[in-house]
Specification:
alpha+beta, 9 strands, rod-shaped, five-stranded antiparallel beta sheet
């Protein structure tokens, strides 16, 4: 009888110890992984050196402005002119009128060229603040 009682006490202690070891643990939820957001690069510069091509189109070439940037095939380059706190896209599909004449930007591999058409006379400005945005 003593033997049975001690066996039952030992078995009961083992069961209680085992049940205490199996307590519920709270786990933090696994965070969802999202692709990193695309980084945006902004370059601010001034177009100040203008050359007339002989037809009344003045060009200011921002040479090698894009050469130090890692631009992927899916990246887009946008060129804005800035005046009085307003940014105007000039690299869109059509030119923009600025001081009664068209202005537009063209983009090559490393350069940005600002074009301004003023066939009847000199340009009405000397410098233009430019922002180049890469998405």
């Amino acid at each position: 009888m003593k033997r049975t009682l001690s066996t039952m006490l030992i078995a009961g202690a083992l069961i209680i110890a085992g049940l205490n070891a199996c307590t519920k643990q709270d786990y933090a939820p696994v965070p969802s992984t999202q692709p990193p957001t695309a980084e945006q690069a902004k370059l601010n510069t001034v177009a100040a050196s203008w050359v007339n091509d002989g037809t009344g189109i003045y060009r200011s070439t921002l040479a090698n402005i894009l050469s130090n940037l890692s631009i992927a095939h899916s990246s887009s380059v946008s060129v804005y002119m800035q005046e009085n706190g307003t940014s105007t896209l000039i690299s869109g599909p059509a030119s923009v009128t600025y001081k009664n004449h068209p202005i537009w930007a063209t983009i090559t591999r490393n350069d940005v060229v600002i074009n301004y058409s003023s066939p009847e006379g000199p340009m009405p400005f000397q410098i233009l603040h430019i922002e180049v945005v890469i998405n």
